[in-house]
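Fill-in record for Folate-biopterin transporter 2.
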Amino acid sequence: MNMEFIGVIYAVGAVGSLLGVVLYQSALKDYDFRSMLLWGQVLSSLTGMLDLALVTRLNTKVGIPDYVFAVIDCGVSVMVGKLQWMPVLVLCSKLCPPGIEGTFYALLMSIQNVGLLMSAWWGGLLLHTLNVTRSEFTNLWAVVLIRNVSRLLPLMLLFLVPQSDQNSTLLPAEMLHDDESTEAVKDGSGSVEFSVLVADGSGCHPSVEDVQDERIKVTDDVGGDVELIPLMNTNRTVG
């Protein structure tokens, strides 16, 4: 296997990834999460059988060279993997609570990466158990078959996935309402009420001022220090 062949495989894989994204965006983005994840896992298991055909040399029996079959296998596998991965990304983004999107999304991606590492460890253990090495491939077909069947195991947890479509809102309305209120204060659409204490020689004179955009201007005839204490958010605007 030369470097040119490896380069062709990577190039075809990149094209397959792009085709997967285009296909998802144009035809599959409106389906519900459960259907997408269900058929994504099934297609992933079925496309894995192409590796089994390559290992058992079934492709040569039908007249397809190893070079061509390996390139086709890579392109199809990467495209199906992208179709399987896109709904997961959309689901993770919709489960992020307002205000901590970056932290929560990083947590979900960390869990995903831990799963990928564990799959690599279990795969290495399976290869060691069946005595598959760089020079011994007698039981490689069994490893590929076990891998393809194990891809169907996550379907047992499919009931935990929301049954809604990918365009719906998954977070509770209370969380979204709180986020809108916070954004309104940040944007200056709400007003802030301050208690103003003017200190002079005779004592403190309390007064209440209504301010807009978190700005207040107090004129004190007595003179002295002015302390601004935020009390609450109000919906009144300055006339």
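KEY FINDING: The beta strands are 191-200, 203-212, 226-234.
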